Amino acid sequence: MRFEADEAAAAIPRQVVWGRDDRIIPAAHAEGRRACVAVHRLDGVGLLPPMEKSGEVDRLIGELPCSA
After folding, report:
1. Is 15 inside any structural domain?
2. Does 42 map to a domain?
3. How many domains, the chain?
4. Integer angstrom CA distances of residue 4 from 1, 41, 57
5. pLDDT of 62
6. Which residues of 41-53 are buried (b: 16+ CB within 10 A; e: fewer)?
7. Per residue of the chain (68 residues), what is the pLDDT tens digit?
8. Nearest 10 degrees: CA dihedral of 12, 68, 5, 33?
9. What is this structure's pTM?
10. Which domain holds residue 38?
11. Partners of 17 in the beta sheet?
12. Is residue 68 part of a domain?
């Protein structure tokens, strides 16, 4: 049962949007994520990418597939 749940979760499209200038949680923490997770690092952005570059974050969310 757990294997099936893990496989189903792996098929869900996911992404992480990180600010390269985040001094609270450094962008290096985005390294090593699973291959099925898209990681986007935004230049000139700190802790709050949705507030600092809302247009760019909106664009990235819009590009995320609805299903695998």
Report:
1. yes
2. yes
3. 1
4. 5, 31, 31
5. 92
6. bbeebeeebeebb
7. 555 566 666 677 888 899 999 999 988 887 776 667 888 999 999 999 999 999 999 999 998 877 55
8. -50
9. 0.72
10. 2-63
11. 40
12. no
pLDDT for residue 7 = 62
CA distance 36 to 59: 19
Whether the Cβ atoms of residue 48 and residue 21 lie closer than 8 Å to each other: no
18 residue type, one letter: W
Using left for φ > 0, alpha for ψ between -120 and 50, and beta otherwise, residue 45 falls in beta
Confirm whether 45 is domain-assigned: yes
Report the number of secondary-structure helices (H) and strands (E) in the chain.
3, 2
Instruction: Identify the H or E element spanning 13.
Output: none
The pLDDT of residue 13 is 80
